[in-house]
Amino acid sequence: MLICNPYEIVIQGMTNNGKRFRPSDWAERLCGVLSSFDQGHRLSYHQWVRPILVDNIRCVAVDRKLEQISATAFNFMMDFARDNDLRILDCKALLEEQEHRQISLTDAVAQENIEAKQTKQINSSTSAETNSQIPVSQLRELKPTEISSAFAALHMLHPDIRDITQFQELVTIQQAEGYRLLGIFEEGKQNAVTVCGFRIVTNFTAGRHLHIDDLASHHLPVQDHQISQILDALKAIGLKEQCKCIHADSSVSSDNTNMHHLYLKHGFILTCHKFSFTIE
C-alpha cells in the first residue's frame, strides 16, 4: 500500500507515453541531489524528498514544503520531471488511480521488450528515416546565468556532487581558470540533455590545445549524433582559438566503455596513460 501524505507530489518513473524510465536507480540519484550527512556521519535523504516504490515502479515523493524553503531545489525537481516527460501526480490522485487500475510489472516489461524491438527495427531503416526521428535540439555555449541547467547531466558523471549550490560554486571556480560549458538542449526542455566542459590550455607536450574535462548526458548510453554535434563545435572552437589538437580525459572504469568507443569512432587515438596519486 502506498504511504504518502496529501502535501506530497509524486514524480512517477513512467513517461506520459507509458514507458518505464531508466536508469533503474534514477529515483535514488534524484533524491541524492538533496541528501546530506546526519550526526552519525551517515548519508540521509532530505526530510521532504524521498524515493518510494509504487506497484514496482520507482517514484520520488516531494513535499510541497520544499518549495517554501528552497524554490530552486523544488523547481529543479519539477524541471527534471518535465524534461524527461515523467508523470507528476499529487498523492491523492495516485491513490485513486491505484484503486481503479493495478499496473502489472510483467506487462510493463513485455511492453518494453516490444518497444526495444520496434526501436531496433527503426534504427535499421535508411539514414534519412533515422535522422528524421532525431529530436530537434540546439547546441550553445552556456552563459554564467545558465550554469544550473548543466547540473542534471553532469551529476550523472559526478554523483558525489549532490548539491546545486556546491555545483555552481565549483563551476564558478573553474571558470576563473578557463573552464567553459557547451550544452545541447532538446526542444521544450529547460535542462541541457548533453553537456561538455572544456578549456583551452598550453603545455610543453601538446602546445596550445583544447582539453575536454567532462562529457556527460541524460541519455544512457550517450547518443552518437549528440557526440558528433559536440565534437564538431569543439573543432570549430579549437580552430578559432588556434589550437593544435583536442585532448580528452575518460575514466578507465568499465562504466565508461561506451565513451571510449565513441572517442575512437570519432577519430581520437590513445596517446598516453594518465597516472593519479591521492594525497592524504
CATH architecture descriptor name of the largest domain:
3-Layer(aba) Sandwich
The count of helical stretches stands at 10
Estimated share of beta-strand residues: 15-25%
Query: How far apart lie the N and C ends?
Result: 48 Å
Query: What is the CATH topology of the largest domain?
Result: Aminopeptidase
Q: Kindly report the spatial arrangement of strands forming the biggest sheet.
A: 7-8-9-10-11
Give me the count of strands.
11
Helix content: 25-40%
Number of self-contained structural domains: 2
Average pLDDT rating: 81
Main sheet: strands, sense, barrel? 5 strands, mixed
The ordered string of helix (H) and strand (E) elements is EHEEEEHHEHHHEHHEEEHEH
Structural class label: alpha+beta
Shape: globular
Radius of gyration: 21 Å
Oligomer: single chain
Uncertain runs are 102-106, 126-132
By CATH, the superfamily of the largest domain comes out as Gcn5-related N-acetyltransferase (GNAT)
**Highest-level CATH class of the largest domain:** Alpha Beta
Protein name: PhnO-related protein
InterPro entries: Acyl_CoA_acyltransferase (IPR016181), DUF3579 (IPR021969)
Describe the structure concisely for a colleague.
With about 280 residues, the chain is of the alpha+beta class. It has helices at about 25-30, 65-70, 70-85, 90-100, 105-125, 125-130, 150-155, 165-175, 225-240, 255-265; strands at about 10-15, 35, 45, 50-55, 55-65, 85-90, 135-140, 180-185, 195-205, 205-215, 245-250. The protein is built from ten helices and eleven strands.
